[in-house]
TrEMBL record:
Protein name: Major facilitator superfamily domain-containing protein
Gene source species: Bombardia bombarda
Annotated compartments: Membrane
This protein's UniProt keywords: Membrane, Transmembrane, Transmembrane helix
Membrane-traversing stretches: 12-34, 81-101, 107-130, 142-167, 173-193, 375-393, 455-475, 481-503, 515-533, 561-580
One family name in Pfam for this protein: MFS_1
Biased composition (Polar residues): 259-276
InterPro entries noted in UniProt: MFS (IPR011701), MFS_trans_sf (IPR036259)
Biased composition (Basic and acidic residues): 228-239
Membrane topology: Multi-pass membrane protein
Keyword check for Transmembrane helix: yes
Cellular component terms per the entry's GO annotation: fungal-type vacuole membrane
Region ranges (Disordered): 206-340
Length: 598
């Protein structure tokens, strides 16, 4: 009964944290609403399409270029500091745009800087929300991360719809909405975003673990032979030893890396003592746990003893107590392969299946990541496909203006704004759908079909190809929704599954920093495709008497740009199929090697 109550409490807490992660992600994807206000902003400040694209690209640069240091920060310091910093940057980034629009003046360089801040803030908060979801639901990672990823894709729709309903045709008020809304959502979510430990029941553990007989002795602990004993790296061992305070709860937040924990706990005692149960932590009781966590504002849960601590614990009693399932399992970067639940008193349980989740067996990061062939394959796929999607996402507003002004030259500004926001909403809904489908679908592929998650990237490539063909052949602006909808769907499929692929390929422990490296790719490709689009559009544009720029050539204003992206789609499809084949051969070699070692 006690175990069931604890499980319910922890499950409820993880659900609340997941809702908070989704709420935060909803504030982080506002870079993709840029097309809803960019044409009017450019007209008011007399900017060319290329200058307008530079401002939009600066937001993308902030979102993607700082992924590595932000990932390192999240991995080493936990998720919550990144959220509060991100919320401040989002608010500070959008406020100057509203002021610049009101005054009809502003430096392009300065606007690029503030746009960069919005991207940087979104990147920080989003990285934290995704990692929290991955840590809280390790056995359903694809589905768990799909929700914040989907909310990120839905962000543009949410703000675009809100602006259409409450501030129709008012670009200045819409920019103020972005400033207040992004800050408010992420700031509120901060208070509920936490990483929680996991409990395992004896029944569930027995299916995946078997007890090691306690007849053996030696330094390794009773029942563990040299071949059975699990070893940790020196960094992990040191961090875990230093992580045990006198109360059994290190003064750290779950989700930090071994280095960060070691740094924070280097002056603490190394004596292992019995830990307070997770039930006490949930209820707010228990001296050391309560004081250490509440003083820092970190997770209210303490950490469990690791392998070494469990051994010391069991050897310090003449009659060791039975391990109970209410002890939380560690969920951060030093997650043990030892279960905290036992069917017999004093037994240490070792996982029986060698083919456990690859993301917890593999830890590739840093320079090792850059020397890995699979990293460069995925880097290329991300760059090609994300760049294609970003070109349409950042320029759908210009597509709308070009087609409508050529189709019906009597349309007014309010009508064009409404159409721009409509297509931004279509893009956002498509992205939301793609992220959700690819996240859940990738879990289905792996668990049911026993296929690679990377097949979702093939789907994304095909969707992008169809979108480019539509963009090259649609003259009627009423049909432009096919371009925006398919582009959003393909972009969502790409980003919905990619974090899970990165975690599965290189390990969950360095997910944030590895994802940061991966998102450097769209910085390169996005700049190339968007600047090329701007150059093509400007070559067909003329400057009016008031200083504003416009193009009346319809589809010819941008058609050449989509020929280039169509060719890039074909290249992306080829690279994706090659990557799947390479991964298949690599896994076969790993399985053969594992069988030979057995």
């Amino acid at each position: 009964m006690h175990d069931t109550t604890l499980d319910r409490q922890l499950h409820r807490a993880r659900v609340v944290s997941s809702v908070a992660a989704t709420l935060i992600s909803l504030a982080c994807g506002t870079n993709y609403v840029y097309s809803a206000w960019a044409p009017q902003f450019a007209d008011k400040l007399h900017l060319t399409t290329t200058e307008s694209n530079l401002i939009g690209l600066s937001g993308n640069l902030g979102m993607y270029s700082m992924g590595v240091p932000i990932g390192l920060f999240v991995d080493h310091r936990g998720t919550r500091p990144a959220v509060i910093a991100g919320s401040l940057l989002l608010g500070l980034g959008y406020l100057p745009f509203s002021a610049a629009y009101e005054s009809a003046s502003g430096s392009v360089a300065l606007m690029c800087f503030f746009s960069y801040l919005t991207g940087l803030g979104g990147c920080m908060a989003f990285a934290a929300s995704v990692k929290t979801s991955a840590l809280n639901w390790p056995h359903h990672r694809g589905t768990a991360t799909a929700f914040p990823l989907a909310a990120f894709g839905l962000s543009a729709f949410f703000f675009s719809l809100t602006g259409t309903v409450f501030f129709p045709g008012n670009t200045s008020a819409f920019l103020m909405l972005l400033a207040i809304g992004t800050f408010g959502l992420s700031f509120v979510g901060f208070f509920f975003l936490r990483v929680y430990p996991h409990t395992g029941s004896a029944s569930s553990s027995s299916a995946a673990y078997h007890p090691v007989p306690s007849s053996g002795g030696g330094s390794g602990g009773p029942g563990l032979s040299d071949s059975q004993r699990l070893r940790r790296t020196s960094d992990e061992a040191k961090s875990l030893r230093s992580g045990r305070s006198s109360g059994g709860f290190p003064d750290v937040e779950p989700g930090m890396s071994p280095t960060a924990r070691n740094h924070q706990n280097q002056n603490q005692n190394h004596t292992a003592v019995p830990t307070t149960s997770a039930a006490q932590a949930v209820g707010g009781g228990g001296g050391a746990a309560e004081s250490s966590t509440s003083s820092r504002g970190a997770s209210p849960f303490g950490r469990t003893d690791d392998v070494e601590a469990a051994h010391h614990h069991s050897s310090s009693y003449s009659h060791p107590p039975p391990a109970t399932s209410d002890e939380p399992q560690d969920v951060d970067e030093t997650s043990s392969l030892i279960s905290s639940a036992s069917s017999l008193p004093g037994d240490v349980l070792v996982q029986s299946s060698i083919d456990m989740d690859r993301s917890h067996r593999v830890d590739i990061r840093g320079w090792r990541l850059l020397r890995n062939v699979e990293f460069w394959q995925l880097f290329a796929i991300m760059g090609i496909l994300a760049g294609i999607g970003l070109m349409t996402i950042n320029n759908i507003g210009h597509d709308v203006n070009a087609l409508w002004k050529h189709y019906d030259d009597s349309v007014d500004e309010a009508f064009l704004i409404q159409r721009q926001q409509m297509h931004v909403s279509i893009l956002s809904i498509g992205s939301f759908t793609g992220r959700l489908l690819s996240g859940v679908g990738s879990d289905f592929l792996v668990k049911i079909v026993k296929a690679s998650r990377s097949w979702c990237l093939v789907v994304a490539s095909f969707i992008f190809c169809i979108a480019q063909v539509c963009a090259l052949n649609i003259y009627n602006p009423h049909l432009l929704g096919l371009v925006s909808g398919l582009s959003g769907l393909g972009y969502g499929f790409l980003f919905g599954v990619f974090p899970s692929i990165v975690a599965e390929t290189f390990g969950i422990h360095g997910l944030s920093q590895n994802w940061g490296f991966m998102t450097l790719s769209p910085v390169i490709s996005g700049n190339i495709f968007n600047l090329f689009y701007g150059t093509i559009f400007d070559s067909h544009s003329t400057q009016g008497a008031a200083g504003d720029w416009s193009c009346a050539d319809g589809i010819d204003c941008y058609r050449e740009a989509y020929y280039v992206t169509l060719g890039a789609c074909g290249l992306g499809l080829v690279v994706t199929l090659w990557t799947i084949h390479h991964q298949y051969l690599t896994r076969l070699r790993e399985d053969s090697k594992g069988t030979a070692e057995d």
